[in-house]
Every structure is written in structure tokens, then in C-alpha cells.
Amino acid sequence: MTNLVKLILPFALLIGRSSASAVELLDYLTDAKGQYAGPSVEDNIAKMDTDRNGFADVFEVRAFLELKHGVGYQKALLDRWEVAANTTSCGTSFAKELTE
């Protein structure tokens, strides 16, 4: 085998595997007519809304995502969301003047 073929072959195999995974996922999420058959955004929000108050706050979203994908999923992002949710006022420069 030439060096070029040795270099290209692993990438070609990787791309082929990614395409197969995408096709499998598409088959899983569509019905026989090709229409999307997965959960709607409304369905997912209803699953997240554990306190049944009509919306999913960041804590409920985190719990749902960690249940689905494992503890620590998107930890940095969800940590920032929780910090922002726990602050008592807006972080803009003019907010201090409005609250004092």
C-alpha cells in the first residue's frame, strides 16, 4: 500500500461509519412514511417539568439531561446556567443603580 492510501483509508472508514450511524438514527426517528416520529419539544418539556408548574427551570432541565445522558453531562454549561438562575439581580452595569 502506498503511504497516501494508508493515510486516507482510516478517514474513509470513519466517514462511512458516521454515515451509517446517521442513517440508523434517521430510521429510528421516522415512521414508514418518512415523517418524524420522535418526541416533540412539548413532550420533552412535560417530562422535565417535575413540579408541574408549566415550565422547566434550569434545575429540572439539568436533572432530565443527566438522567438521559449521565451525571456530568454538559457540566460547565449547566453550572453557568444554575449560577445565573441563582443570582438575585441582573448582571448589567445599570442594574445596581435600579436596585439601590
Secondary structure topology:
Layout (H helix, E strand, L loop, with lengths): L2 H27 L11 H8 L9 H12 L5 H12 L8 H5 L1
Number of strands: 0
Helix run count = 5
What share of the residues does DSSP label as strand, in percent? Answer: under 5%
Kindly, what is the distance between the CA atoms of the first and last residues, rounded to a whole number of angstroms? 74 Å
Overall pLDDT: 77
Portion of residues within helices: 55-70%
Structural class: mainly alpha
Major sheet details: none
Rounded radius of gyration (Å): 22 Å
Shape: extended
| Succession of helices and strands | HHHHH
Low-confidence segments, ≥5 residues, pLDDT <50?
A: none
Task: Pick out its properties.
mainly alpha, 100 residues, single chain
Structural summary, described in words:
The chain has 5 helices and no strands. The termini are far apart. It has helices at 3-29, 41-48, 58-69, 75-86, 95-99. It is mainly α.
Task: Write a short abstract of this structure.
About 65% of the residues lie in helices and about 0% in strands. The chain has about 100 residues and is an all-alpha fold.
